[in-house]
Amino acid sequence: MELVKPADFREIRRTRRSEFRWAAIAVLGVLLLGTLKGIIVAVIASLLELAYDACNPPVYTVGRKPGTSVFRPQSPEHPDDETWAGLLLVRTEGGIFFANAQRVGDQMWPLIESARPSVVVIDGSAIVDIEYTALKMLAEAEEKMRADGATLWLAGLNPEVLTMVRNSRVGKVLGPDRLFDNLDTAVAAYLKTPRGQT
């Protein structure tokens, strides 16, 4: 029975490079250290990469695909995606907790400072969990934005995250008027404001 199939490696490399690295480390580890030690090395390498990914979630701006309700990362490949003057839509992904909350903020602030929007909407549709530390930092960010003349809105939070936000200090400040079901409703609300009609 063939243990290593080159076709499988090519398929893994084509679809997901991180898993290709894990597979390559496993093969090399088994060849150099033996089966058990090689597998342990591969498991440790994969856990380290997963921890790194969890601590470094992506943060990016999004625009709306014309004629749809699809919001996707802004990219030179989609120059016609809709954006609105004074409105910045930002998305992050995964769980936000003590080990990555500062990193999320560090990636988000340059986007805000560059755009100088009057309203910042954080799309939380891909946030699976949020810890107290992150909620505290979000409250501090809301205060800083307000001092700079910008308003923070949240959109698309899953039910569990939405409950945590509502029960937090930042949730009390935002109130129901700045919590939206999705980005579409947030954009529609923005366009009804004097800022969005200019």
Q: Would you kindly provide a written description of the structure presented here, covering whatever features stand out?
A:
With 198 residues, this protein is α/β, with parallel strands linked by helices. The chain folds into two domains: 6-54, no CATH class; 59-192, Transcription Regulator spoIIAA (2-Layer Sandwich), CATH 3.30.750.24. The protein has eight helices and eight strands; from the N terminus they run αααββββαββαβααβα. The strands form two sheets. The chain has a six-stranded mixed beta sheet with strand order 2-1-3-5-7-8. The chain has a two-stranded parallel ribbon with strand order 4-6. A hairpin with a 6-residue loop joins strand 1 (59-64) and strand 2 (71-73). The longest helix has 21 residues, at 35-55. The chain is elongated. It starts with 5 loop residues before the first helix and ends in a 6-residue tail after the last helix. 23% of the residues are buried.
Number of helices: 8
How many whole angstroms does the radius of gyration measure? Answer: 21 Å
- Give the low-confidence spans: none
What is the CATH class of the largest domain? Alpha Beta
Number of domains: 2
Question: Fraction of residues in helices?
Answer: 40-55%
Mean pLDDT, rounded to whole units?
A: 88
CATH-defined fold name of the largest domain: Transcription Regulator spoIIAA
Overall 3D geometry? elongated
Q: Structural class of the helix and strand makeup?
A: alpha/beta
CATH superfamily of the largest domain: STAS domain
